[in-house]
Prior knowledge:
This protein is mostly helical.
Amino acid sequence: MRFRRLIPFLSCALGALALSGCHRLPPPKPLSQLNAEESHGHAVFQAHCAQCHFDRSDGSLRGPSLLGLTKKPYLPSGAPSNDERITATILHGRDMMPAQQDIDDLEMHDLLAYLHTL
């Protein structure tokens, strides 16, 4: 008898879980479709980031994957995932990530454009 009283509650709870379930991120923009600044950003990524981070797949190398980085609300550190925090993390480093102070303003702009395609 008590179980029958729980059925509506359980149905609502399961429905809420189904609606709030895992949100899949869209796939990254294909490399063949990148514009000039995104392509340059990809080259900057390859030169400065690829030795520690995957960009187009999940999983970690020495650092976390950057797939969907700008589409998530928070960075792996817990900071907001916005251009300002991403730039600060790249330029100043964080925890085991070394600072990348040799990236100039144009390279940073293009790198951010590329990260937005992931």
